[in-house]
Design goal:
Layout (H helix, E strand, L loop, with lengths): L1 H7 L31 H14 L6 E2 L1 H15 L3 H18 L9 E2 H11 L3 H18 L6 E2 L1 H10 L7 H8 L7 E2 H13 L17
Antiparallel strand pairs: 1-2, 3-4
Helix pairs in contact: 1-5, 3-4, 3-7, 6-9
């Protein structure tokens, strides 16, 4: 399994609805971040990300985790019909995309996830595609496709990963830098890129995916 993870693990953050290039105006570009050393803060962030994406808590990232995440979004937002189907389709496309080079793969372990992300996010090609990747993540959370993420949509995002809903408001406020009550694509992308690449403990985006794991 590890042989192919080196190329597919970064796809956890790459576009899964399409590969259309997107761009937004950022205060800090991915290329502006120094090389990641893999310090304890960075590893805690990625343990946190893994643990939340491992929805059924079996120690692996699997297709069922993406299905469960979709169902929780549908439940929280009380979706039905086409919108519910679209949420499920998006999650399944995400799983199919990240395993495209290894369709036989049954799951991704925490160690493989962390070590391969550390290598990948120090590569120029991966950083070049991060803006488009994060834009696609934003599009998946913008459930009504109105160009912004509302507090309820953000809470649904946390709920889908079993992150307690009370942790959503402070993270939302950190991303809503102009305090207008919604998260724009630029605000979301800047926060996610900083979470993935920064090792600064004072960053306002340390808890982008909720409270850090031990």
């Amino acid at each position: 399994m590890s042989r192919s993870l080196l190329s597919i693990t970064p796809r956890l953050f790459q576009p899964y609805r399409c590969l259309k290039q997107q761009s937004v105006k950022l205060k800090k570009h991915p290329r502006d971040y120094p090389k990641i050393t893999g310090n304890e803060l960075w590893r805690r962030k990625f343990r946190t990300l893994f643990q939340y994406k491992d929805v059924n808590k079996d120690g692996y990232l699997k297709k069922v985790d993406y299905e469960m995440s979709a169902w929780r979004i549908i439940q929280y937002m009380d979706l039905s019909g086409e919108m519910a189907a679209d949420v499920m389709e998006t999650q399944l496309q995400m799983w199919e995309y990240i395993t495209a080079n290894a369709p036989y793969m049954e799951g991704i372990t925490l160690n493989d996830f962390t070590e391969n992300c550390l290598k990948a996010y120090n590569e120029e090609n991966t950083r070049f595609g991060l803006i488009t990747a994060c834009c696609s993540e934003f599009d998946a959370l913008d459930l009504d496709a109105n160009g912004v993420i509302s507090p309820k949509e953000h809470a649904a995002f946390f709920y889908s990963y079993f992150v307690p809903a009370e942790h959503s408001p402070p993270v939302f406020r950190a991303m809503d830098t102009d305090s207008d009550g919604v998260i724009t694509k630029a605000e979301f992308v800047q926060g996610m890129i900083d979470f993935l690449l920064s090792e600064d403990p004072k960053s306002p985006y340390v808890n982008f995916f909720g409270p850090l794991a031990n």
